[in-house]
């Protein structure tokens, strides 16, 4: 659940909805006044409804007054109530039973004519309510029936935030809907709207809203092979929430006729012909889907319609990838000029194009030709004079290098070859002159951005620059790093549908249940005292799976249980299988990938291992800290930026740290860091819990990242745009 320091936007919206609700109540009250007059009360005797309210007030420790005013009675004199989406929010956040809890999906609760529903006794009511809270959070559910509730939704109560209790709490009032006001279908829609309002708060708005165009090879959930898809699937939404108009341009990958993931996208009438140099003109179509206030634009061309992932199939990388992504880059340049995809943040046609004053955010080498096209083609003809382009580098190891003779297929002027010029080394398969798309993008971009401050520095070194460190050193004045965020709704330990129990920073008891469930699922000994360590990631050299596999024996000797989840290099996959055979009581290797299993590993493990040789940002350490799982990671790139080393001797008022880092990335060094962590796990339980809570309190939301991106976008417009030749 997203956090906020000043939820003013949400408060304003709530106030408006309350005013509308009060007007409706006044209208309904006039219709039901006669029925109300016929309801008599015995002097000196409290009604059942008042007793229920008094019981609720006692359980809450406060008043039951509702800021929305009294609930109206129906014309028949019955008390009708629709459960609010915010009922029981306190329990979902804190992990402890609340005296007021209703299921979001429960039916409308109506008392019989002439009577009022009764509130159960405190003990039984709390037990059943707690069961409902676990069901809403995705945990195990009691089979006993849920009690009816009569108390009003908490209107102006403040609910502690599960991520950082020190931050101001949020009001939880939402409008209620009665059966008289809506049909069953309308009621379901109202519930969905309330859920959306509850889960997606309105963050502070940008002072200068911009038109922003993302260009990427991936965007989750439509296409994803790694962190790039996650970033482009989440960051645009966070920026749109701040008031920007945001478009995302990605290929429309189709894997056969049965591929329906783009079913919600509508084909636009606009077809654009692109001059791709020596390969001639190529026409592309565009599909559009407006979702979460973002314009998702999918470029359609036959080169994106093939089996495999976005870049390769079982035979290896596609041989025409440079053409496929140069086509994407040029189509993205045309999109803000040609596509009428709706008014500001509406997504409704007829609309108007984004226009020439926009901010392009080109991601990795696949989109690095966008700044080159802007500087080398469009601006020399008077177009996009007021636009800016920032190149976001997620991984320097991938640069888009091709033999020189294919340069003419890019559609760039011939005098741009030197800007992209490169040389294949003598030992390569095709030695000699070449061109480097990422190099050209760096030189042509107005600013360069990467996914952590640590990686921004590493890119300027010979070890981390992959041959482009000299160019990046010359652009250090426009080079910035911003750590990625994570989806705080998908990764929420208090409401994770994939885990055995829910828990929060205030109540960690559910984590032990998650651990026991994971141990049982893996066929390991169920023992809370045994440290459970996890590794999740691609099995390739960068992620350091060999380091983790080399440490399996040492971890077993230390009494640890270890689980590895991932796929990749066959050698590492085979070593995982062999390790499980060699250490059947302490090791499990899961070849492949499963999102539910990844959630259960993150929630159930005590420690997450991240021995990456280099890591531009890293996401697993953010997921882990969100779930109170402590990272032990190589001190590189974003891992070094996001993990604060533990100080076991810190006082209660001092930061305790969020994990342990080590260097170099080898098994003996990693085991040394694990030893330090295990000493704390076994002998300093108070410190261990503080470290868990420090990680859970850390702000890893996309909202934080979006604010930093926004600042860099503003900087881009301070200087004149890059013009070449």
Automatic annotation (TrEMBL):
EC number: 2.4.1.21
Listed Low complexity bias regions: 94-109
UniProt cross-references to SUPFAM superfamilies, sorted A to Z: UDP-Glycosyltransferase/glycogen phosphorylase
A GO cellular component entry from the record: amyloplast
Subcellular location as annotated: Plastid, Amyloplast; Plastid, Chloroplast
Pathway: Glycan biosynthesis; starch biosynthesis
Alphabetical list of CDD domains matching this protein: GT5_Glycogen_synthase_DULL1-like
NCBIfam families: glgA (TIGR02095)
Family from the record: Belongs to the glycosyltransferase 1 family. Bacterial/plant glycogen synthase subfamily.
Protein name: starch synthase
Annotated source species: Apatococcus lobatus
